[in-house]
C-alpha cells in the first residue's frame, strides 16, 4: 500500500541523496565516480596535497637515544629550499657526517616537497608531533609559524654564539619574533639590486647603470627618476618608437624598460626602493599606508598606465614576456630582483638561452638620496615545543655555520668568509657576464628595515588583501589610486582587529 | 573387512537448513557486499564530516592548536556578517547559471551529433571529444590562459582579424564567467558518454512508430528522446550541479587562489580552501563547508522534487 511503502522509500531516497552528496563533497576520501566532474577530482587533488616526503626518513622515536647514542633532534626541510636532488644529497651528507662525528646528538632529517611542506608542518603541530628545527626558512615562512618558533636569544647568550662574524645589518635581522624575539641566526642572504640586459642598453646607445652607491648616471643622481627616464627610452613599440616619442603606440609594446619581478604582488616589496615600509604601525595594532609606500605605488601606477615603461599584469603573463618570467624573455631591460634569480635568467638546456651572458648588475636606484634594497634571508629556527632545546640549538648552530649548505641552497652566506664558493658557482653559470660582486655586498649594507615581509597580524589573510590590491592596480587602470590605498587600509584594519594572533 | 565411510563418521543430528526466506538471505548477502563501502563511508566520509561539525563550533587554528576554544555558533553567525561569503555565493550562483545549462546543452548536443546513424568515424570522433578529459586540469587551464591572453592569445587574435571586439577574458568581471565556462566545456566528455549511453537505450521502435505517424525530428526529440533520457539527464544535472558548487581548480590556477578580478572568481570552494589551508582558520572553514553542504543539499532536493513530476522511469520506479 502506498502509505506503508512511501516512508522507507523517502528515507532511502534521502539516504541516497546524502550518500551522493557526501561522496561528492568528500571526494578526497573516496574515489570519484567515473562520471564525476573533472573539476571535482582535480579540486580534491589540488586541495589535498600528496603528503609523501621526498626523503622518507625512518620514523625515529625522539624519546630514546638515536643510533649513535645521542639525543634525537628532528630537522624539518621544505619550507624554502632543500628539495632539489643536489640539495638533498648535500643535506644527507651533512647529517651523516654530523651523526658520525659525535655521540651527543642524532639528527633525524625530514625533507618534504616545498608545495606541501607548510601544510605538513601545520598538521604535525596540530597533532603535537612537531619537529625540533625548521629551515632553511625565510621571513615569510617564519611569519606563518610565529607563535610556534622559540626565542633563540637565551641560547645565543648562554653558548656565546659568535654574531660578530656577520655584517652589521644582519646581526639584528631576525629579531622579528613577537616582542622582538630572535627567531633565527644569520645564515643565507639574498640581497636585491638592478639586473639589466646589456644588449638592450647597447641597442638604445645608453650607458650601463652605476655599480657604486652614490655614483651618478649621465651626470644626474642615480635614482627612481633616472630609472623612469631611461625606462621610457628602453620601452619600444612594434614600429620601433620608444615611449618618449610622440608616435609611440602604447597598445603595441614589444619591449619594456623596468619591472620589479616576482615581488609576489606585494606593495611593500615593489616600493621598497622608496624606503622600507610596513602596513602595521609601530603600535602593533593600527593599519597604515606609509608615505614611502603611497609614493612608490603612484610611481608604479604611472609607470604602468601613463608612461608605459612597466608592463601590465596581462603583458607580464604574455608570450612576449615569457609568461611570467619577463627578464628571461629578453624584452625587459631592467629588473629589480634578488640574487636567487641567478637560477632562472636562462632556461634549462636544451632550451636556448635568450639573455645568455648579457646580464649586468647595478646598484638599486635611490629615492630622496637614500638607497634601499629589499632583502630576503634564510635561517634555521627552533620550535618552542622541542624537548631538547640545548641539543637542538647545537644542531642549529652547526647548520647555520655550514657554507656548503648555504651555497647549495643558492644563498649568499651571511658569513663573508664563506661567500667565495657561492660567488664561484654564479660566475660559472654566467662565464661571460663579468658580474660585479661589490653590488650585492653594497646592497646587503642597505637592507629594508622593517623588512617588506615583516609580520603583521593574521599574516596570510593580510597578505591576500594586499596581493588583491597589487594585482588589481596592475590589471585595470584605477580611477583613483589614493582611494584604493585607503580602502586597502580599511580592509587591513578589519583583519588586524579580528586577528587571532595580535601582538602581545 | 574394511569399514565404509558412512560407518566411520560419528552420528550427527540431521543438518537443518537455515530457515531464511530468500528475500532476507538476499538482503544479507547484499549487506556483506556493501559492507566494505559502508565501513569506508563511516570512517573516511562520515567521520570527517562529524569532526568538521565539531570543529565548526570552535576557533581551531592549525598553527595555534593549544589556543582552541569552544565558540558555539559564532562561526555560523560570522557567515552572515562576512561580506566575502555573500560575494562568493553570488559569484558561485552567477557562474552556475551560465555553466550548468551550457554544459548540459553541449554534452547533449555532442551526444546527439556523435550518435547520429549517418555519421562516419563515430569512434575516433567520440575519442577526440573525450580526450581533453584525460589532460590534467592544471595543465589544460594553463594552456587556456595562454589562449585567452589579451596580448598574445590566439582567440583575441582571431577575433581581431574578424574585426570583432577583443575582451579581457580573465581580468574582466563580465568576461571571466564565459571564459571559465569555455574552459569547462573541455570537460564534457564524461557527460557526453553518459548521454550517448542514454540515447542508445531509447527503443528505436518508438522512433519508427513516430515517423510513421508523421512526427518530424524536433517532435521526436521533444516527445521521445527527452522523456526517455530524463533519468540520465537528471543524473548528469545533479553531478554537474555538485561539480559547479565545488568548482575550484581552474579558479585557483587562473588567479593563484586570489579570486581576481575583484573577487569575481572567489567561489565557495576557494573561500573554504583559503580560510582553512591558507589562513589556517579551520573552525571557520568547517562552518563554510557546512554552509556549502546545505546549499548543495537544498538544491539537490529541489531537483529530486522536480524529478518526481518530470522524470520518466520506464519501470515505474523513481
CATH architecture of the domain at 74-118 and 190-310 in chain B: Orthogonal Bundle
Largest sheet features of chain B: none
CATH 2nd-level architecture of the largest domain in chain A:
3-Layer(aba) Sandwich
Helix content of chain B: 55-70%
Major β-sheet profile of chain A? 10 strands, mixed
Q: In DSSP terms, counting alpha (H) and pi (I) runs of 4 or more, how many helices of chain A? A: 18
Task: Tell me the name of the CATH class of the largest domain in chain A.
Answer: Alpha Beta
> Roughly what is the average pLDDT of chain A, rounded to an integer?
88
| Shape summary of chain B | flat
What's the CATH topology label of the largest domain in chain A? D-Maltodextrin-Binding Protein, domain 2
What do these coordinates show?
The complex is a heterodimer of chains A (504) and B (318). The termini of chain A are far apart. Chain A folds into two domains: 71-189 and 376-441, Periplasmic binding protein-like II (D-Maltodextrin-Binding Protein, domain 2); 192-375 and 449-498, D-Maltodextrin-Binding Protein, domain 2. Chain A has 18 helices and twelve strands. In chain A, the strands form two sheets. In chain A, strands 1, 2, 3, 4, 7, 8, 9, 10, 11 and 12 form a ten-stranded mixed sheet that branches. By secondary structure, chain A is an alpha+beta fold. In chain A, helix 17 packs antiparallel against helix 18 (481-498). Chain A has helices at 2-25, 38-47, 85-101, 114-126, 139-144, 153-159, 168-171, 198-203, 224-233, 267-270, 291-305, 313-316, 389-400, 403-408, 420-429, 438-444, 459-475, 481-498; strands at residues 71-77, 105-111, 133-137, 188-197, 216-217, 220-221, 236-237, 253-260, 332-338, 359-362, 375-382, 412-413. Helices cover 38% and strands 13% of the residues of chain A. Chain B is mainly alpha-helical and 318 residues long. Chain B has a domain at 74-118 and 190-310: MetI-like fold. Helix content of chain B is 67%, strand content 0%. Chain B has helices spanning 5-8, 22-55, 74-81, 83-114, 122-130, 137-148, 154-161, 176-184, 189-200, 204-212, 217-245, 249-255, 268-278, 282-310. In chain B, helix 9 runs antiparallel to helix 11, helix 11 packs antiparallel against helix 14 (282-310) and helix 13 (268-278) runs antiparallel to helix 14. Chain B is flat and about 75 Å long. Chain B starts with a helix and ends in an 8-residue tail after the last helix. The relative contact order of chain B is 0.12. The mean pLDDT of chain B is 90. Chains A and B meet through helix 1, helix 2, helix 4, helix 12 and helix 17 of A and helix 2, helix 6, helix 9, helix 11 and helix 12 of B.
